[in-house]
Design goal:
Blueprint: H1 3-6, H2 9-15, E1 18-20, E2 23-25, H3 31-42, H4 51-60, E3 68-70, H5 71-76, E4 94-95, H6 99-103, H7 108-120, E5 123-130, H8 136-153, E6 156-165, H9 187-202, E7 207-211, E8 217-222, E9 227-230, E10 240-242, H10 252-255, E11 264-267
Parallel strand pairs: 5-6, 6-7
Antiparallel strand pairs: 1-2, 2-3, 4-11, 5-8, 8-9, 10-11
Helix pairs in contact: 3-4, 8-9
Amino acid sequence: MKLKNYLSPTVMKKTLVEEEKNKFWLKDVHKEIFVLFVTEYLQQADPHWNKQDSVKLVDAVEKSVFQYIDVQKLLGLVMSRDGFTFSFNVVQNVCSDELFDLLLEYHPEKWRFIHEMFMLDGKVDLIYEDRYVNSPLGCLLLAQFIRRIRDLFKLSYRSIEIILSKKDFRVIFDDDKLKIDRKFSFPENRDSFLRLCMDEIVSEPYKLKVKNLQHARTLIIRNSKFQLSICPDAGISYGWGVENGVHRDLTIDVLKKNLDLNINCFNRAAHSFDREGII
């Protein structure tokens, strides 16, 4: 059962964990509730993580009332399952085709290990689920990201599967004049443009599925020996806008004819009063 469904609003105010930068302040949280929270948090990185794993992990951490728990330390214990988890907040602006390059600047020693794991077997399957890809910029970022991972890590895609949501659109009826960081009117318009991006930018066979999704936003790449899961908070396009300048008023009809553009993206989340970059 999801944590948000397990607690009533009244109980949530009294017991739910408050996040403060990279730590959680526990306020008389019942162990069962804390286990549910840990399970939901870690399943973002590892879909196979289950409640029993969380019970063992919580038992391994000395937990008491009003104790600070370092999230990085908590996630580090996952290494006991022959893997590791790390997170970071992206604070820089970026060009759209260099988003994966930017991620490699954080924890470079871990990315070197990941690269080595894929060098053992470069034939991989890629699966991406995202409820929030609903703009031309989001489609472009996704296609460029998939291509860039392949080129930098020298991968060969055995299969590519993209699963997107049919919700979260707004009807404006003139998508050809849509600015590229605005939502499409209908999912069919998004799907058509994404197919164009995938065909011209990635140039690999792929499957596109559209269905009702909850808070999905996970990219999985796996070979015969290793699996990498990347879980961008609220999806790959969250927090990115078009930077003021040459591309600011770019519309989709122009972008369709210039898919080789490298768009200057502004990191909105890094300048938000309640966020510290894009997780």
